[in-house]
Amino acid sequence: MTITKQIPNTKMINPKILYYGFPVILLSTLNEDGTVNISPLSSSWALGDCIVLGIGLGGKAIENLERHPECVINIPEPSLWENVEQLAPYTGKKPVPDFKKQIGFTYRKEKFDICGFTPINSTTVIPTRIMECPIQIEAKVKHIRIPDYSPTFAIVETQTIHVHAHEEIIIEENHIDPNKWSPLIYNFRHYFGLGSKLGNNFRSEI
Predict the structure, then answer these.
(1) What is the pTM (predicted TM-score) of this model?
(2) Which pLDDT does position 16 carry in this prediction?
(3) Which of helix, strand or coil describes residue 79?
(4) Of 181, 185, 173, 175, whose CA–CA distance to 197 is shortest?
(5) Cis bond before residue 89 (omega within 30° of 0)
(6) Residue 29 and residue 62: Cα distance in Å, rounded?
(7) What per-residue string of b and e applies to 148-165 under the rule 16 or more CB within 10 Å gives b?
(8) How far is CA 181 from CA 38, 53, 82, 170, 186, in A?
(9) Would you say residue 20 has pLDDT above 90?
(10) Residue 100 pLDDT level (bands cut at 50, 70, 90)
(11) What burial class does residue 20 get, using C-beta atoms within 10 Å of its C-beta: 0-12 exposed, 13-18 middle, 19+ buried?
(12) Element (H, E) at 113
């Protein structure tokens, strides 16, 4: 008996955004006066000790990184989505750039005050970590590039210096237990957690 697979119909579309499912990160950067700015981001990837960030131009995060090339990449879990969303409509940039003003952003310097997060000192870098985030990565900026073909954002290469993790998600000393850890996912401007485990990659060590 021959089983014929049904070919799904497709249609060409022109989406305004392509956030097709990325972990949310909260980027801690240093302001001019020594206070810390928090920026929610959803564009990043990691390979080895290199973490690459996609950051829009005209905001406080990129301005801070250009002046002080250190940061903390805080990774929240799904239960923190409301705290993240409380940060979403605010910018640390003053005056608020027109393009941000048009989509509803307002200025707020003290980000910790509005989102219920707690600052905690980092080990090496100056920007503080966010205590509630289960994974906190201290990093140094190595390279900032603005693509010629899309000059509205920067590609920021960072090098990991220290990784901090909540003890309850650590297994075998230096591994994150994937059965206990789930990142907050930004999926076409909606928040999700991960689903049930499907299996292991052949390179999995735990």
Answers:
(1) 0.92
(2) 84
(3) helix
(4) 181
(5) no
(6) 9
(7) eeeeebbebebeebeebb
(8) 22, 22, 18, 9, 16
(9) no
(10) confident
(11) exposed
(12) helix 112-115
Q: Is 51 helix (H, G, I), strand (E, B) or coil?
A: strand
- Per-residue tokens: 158: 């960072």
Please provide the average confidence, as pLDDT, over all residues in the chain.
92
- C-alpha 115/C-alpha 83 separation (Å) is 5
Q: Which residue has the tokens 């590039």?
A: 145
Residue with tokens 């940039």: 93
Contact indicator for 33, 94 with CB cutoff of 8 Å? no
d(CA 68, CA 76): 24
- pLDDT at residue 1 tops 80: no
- 163: tokens are 């990784």
For residue 202, pLDDT over 80 is answered with no
Side chain identity at residue 168, one-letter code: E
